[in-house]
């Protein structure tokens, strides 16, 4: 399955979660529910996947973790914030670069309409 097809399935599942729960909950609740929805849809999902930092010959297990990695290809960062800021975008771009992933989704569930809370981020590899 290609990244675009996977991202479509993720967005569909996120919309189902948001429709059922609405805005205003903590990030952890949305992440767990999205994880469950994606698993129930038959997708391979890693939750809280460790992301080491590697620089030249130094490997640091610094505690970075991807919220969700779907089908070993698409990074999903779940937020429940007033609005995205530059740090959120920098975070997902860094994860894409460090893991050599082509596509990420930044999803903010704290919005009235979920389509206003989704940012698709591509790594320019």
Describe the structure.
The protein is α+β, with helices and mostly antiparallel strands and 125 residues long. It has one domain. Helix content is 38%, strand content 28%. The strands form 2 sheets. The chain has a 5-stranded mixed β-sheet, sandwiched between helices. A two-stranded antiparallel ribbon has the order 2-3. Helix 3 links the parallel strand 5 and strand 6. It starts with a helix and ends with a strand.
Oligomeric assembly: single chain
Strand order of the largest sheet: 1-4-5-6-7
- The low-pLDDT segments are none
In total, the number of strands is 7
Question: What are the SSEs and their pairings?
Answer:
Blueprint lengths: L2 H19 L5 H14 L4 E6 L2 E3 L2 E3 L4 E6 L3 E6 L6 H14 L3 E6 L9 E5 L3
Parallel strand pairs: 5-6
Antiparallel strand pairs: 1-4, 2-3, 4-5, 6-7
Helix pairs in contact: 1-2
Summarize the structure.
With 125 residues, the protein is an alpha+beta fold.
Which key phrases capture this entry?
125 residues; alpha+beta; five-stranded mixed beta sheet; two-stranded antiparallel sheet; 3 helices
């Amino acid at each position: 399955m290609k990244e675009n097809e996977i991202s479509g399935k993720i967005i569909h599942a996120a919309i189902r979660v948001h429709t059922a729960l609405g805005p205003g909950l903590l990030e952890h609740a949305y992440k767990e529910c999205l994880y469950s929805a994606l698993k129930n849809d038959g997708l391979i999902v890693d939750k809280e996947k460790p992301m080491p930092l590697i620089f030249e010959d130094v490997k640091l297990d610094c505690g970075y973790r991807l919220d969700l990695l779907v089908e070993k290809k698409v990074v999903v960062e779940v937020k429940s914030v007033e609005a995205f800021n530059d740090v959120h975008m920098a975070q997902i771009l860094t994860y894409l670069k460090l893991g050599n992933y082509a596509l990420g989704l930044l999803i903010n569930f704290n919005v009235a309409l979920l389509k206003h809370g989704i940012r698709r981020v591509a790594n320019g590899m």
